[in-house]
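Known limitations

Files may contain more than one protein. Parsers should not assume a single record per file. Below, a two-record file is shown to illustrate correct handling: read the sequence, read the token line, then continue until end of file.
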Amino acid sequence: MMEPRNMSRVTEFILLGIPFLYDLHRVFFAVGLFMYIVTILGNGFILIIVAIEPRLQTPMYTFLSNLAFLEICYTSTVVPKLLQTFIQNKTTICFHCCLIQVFFHFSFGSTELFILTAMAFDRYLAICKPLQYPIMMSKHVCIQMNLATWYIAFLIVISQYFMFQGLLFCRSNVVDSFFCDIGPLLRLACMDTHLFESLRLLAAFAIVIMTLLLIVLSYVFIIATILRIPSAIGRKKAFSTCTSHLLVVSILYGALVFMYVRPNVHSSDHLTRTVAVLNTTLIPMINPFIYTIRNAEVTKAVQNVIQKMKGNNSSMTLIGSRNEMTFRKWWHC
């Protein structure tokens, strides 16, 4: 029989952070803070440039701006608490705050995967069905697809959230992680979690594997179409619109499959913890650079914005000069 004191309900959790980096926590705090700031600025830049530049207000860049917003939200659910653990070595988080972090972290992460799938479908239509593309990927359809990615992801995750809320934690409140991850939390539950683990794997399979298969299928058709283009320049131009997306998909899905689509949720080695840190800090930071570096349309858009700013400054200077001349004439009179 379990002792009464062990049956008391957990009201807060203690996050251990990354114990094997305790000696370098100050260094990693500085690095993590820098990466977080770059993530916010980089993804914020994409949001701003797509919003103010008309030539980028296309389905492709609408999906990209949605992805940039998700990256900001996704990393913000974890990184501030991670930085706190670097300063304090271990930190506390209230029970309901922990559940909220679990919900939003996996909701934003799942939505990101659906957005990447929608982006692959957009490239499929643009390359494989260029004549029907303006109709099939109209502004109305693009908006609906963006909203659908949020709705489907939240619908899947919220079912997991309500089940997770019913778990009883009475063994310990020490979470062997730097955020409220499902695996370390399940190890603290004082009830049978096999059903929840099975449903977790099912949800992970539905979200990660199914979206990956849809992306791969899209690129099978895309590559087959590109190979039929007679011009080498045409093939290079068509494939260049997909390289950034393919690189992001490869990095992100590699990390997610390693972390979540495994039958043993209780594994907690250093490598898994390191991959989790990179997934929440490094990947959101490099994505804006992958999508913008060597992107001719973004480069031209930035140049247009700079020219407009220079033009506005010149206009303001000219207006100021005219006002000054008028004032001088009035003063002499």
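...continuing to the second record:
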Amino acid sequence: MASLDQSRNLVTEIPGPASLELNKRRSAAVSSSVGVTLPVFVARAGGGVIEDVDGNRLIDLGSGIAVTTIGNSSPAVVDAVRRQVAEFTHTCFMVTPYESYVAVAEELNRITPGDGEKRSVLFNSGAEAVENAVKVARSYTRKSAVVAFDHAYHGRTNMAMALTAKSMPYKSGFGPFAPEIYRAPLSYPYRDGLIDKELATDGEKAAARAISVMDKQVGVRNLAAVIIEPIQGEGGFIVPAEGFLPTLVEWCRENDVVFIADEVQTGFARTGAMFACEHEGPNGLEPDVIVTAKGIADGLPLSAITGRAEIMDAAHTGGLGGTFGGNPVACAAALATIATIESEGLVQRAAQLEPLLTEPLLRLQASDDRIGDVRGRGAMIAIELVKSGTVDPDPELTTKLATAAHAAGVIVLTCGMFGNIIRLLPPLTITDELLTEGVEVLTGLLAEL
């Protein structure tokens, strides 16, 4: 396939006539319960561009929700997948295993935080990995309670929905949910600072608040695991105050509680480190179990849990697995993805993209009080929008800004418990020029609105 021109180019309105025709077919054939952010149908994608069926080229600041981190259809991944498809597509690792599954596990054990002996298990989706991480923690501790945090998002399966905080659209009407799930307050520096300035900057104080809730409402004798996103994804790209996560980890270690880091959205170079846990404390954070998916295989469905060997080996033989878990084609893609991240210096690239994203937004924030907060790490940056003269969330403005950006050929995503956050997740292979243009379009539209 010829390389895709890395420029924004609109030849029709968005969506164009061919996309509108396909949307009619979608409405007639696909359940209306599946939402669509931007109803343009994709023909090709690569680098920082998505081309639709009408020939429009859009700047991609979403990466399929942090999935195509190394760029859509990365050449190394395409080659690896072609080779594997020609050999075999499936045997089920639990029936007749194959080397690529083992190789992915070895790579995950190598690159995830911590130097001790580790084990990995492969699954299909982030939600499935979250569920299995909880199973592992319960097997290891022989306890049942699990604590998740305010604003958390952990997936759409039953256990994952219970762990997720936001009702609409993820949980409403789908209960009853898995029992023995509890919630603790997160460190949310922007919102915490509106109540208590010290709480906004003192992560240890914020952690003490959460620990008090866990002690009183759950009790450590009942608590199997604490699960948390090191930077919250769907919850609003919330970066906890310094000291919050290390204090939680220390408390978990002292009380035989498994600390699970959900790095589904933050993993694989997204934040300017291979994993977001590495940003925490002087030597980084070492979770007991780490959950990964999204960016692991450049768009092929794969997820994993990796953790300390004694925890990961606690479940009985046959207790973990699944028909498609660690599919050989997805494993080939994952090996090529990890190799590409390392050989092309994409961890460093994510760090380089951070000022290109944040500096224009911070400049605008200085003159526009509707930008309440600009936050995130690496190529994972969010804008929290509020009503002028207040700190009240402004979901209406957020929707208008996202819609206007889409019409102008820039793909952005919204998120947050209050629906007032624009999140930016460009592929790490996007050019500086294209990223700068995308952010300029966004800031220009906000000034106009």
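Parsers that stop after the first record will miss the second one. For reference, the second record is described as follows. The domain at 17-73+346-448 is CATH 3.90.1150.10 (Aspartate Aminotransferase, domain 1).
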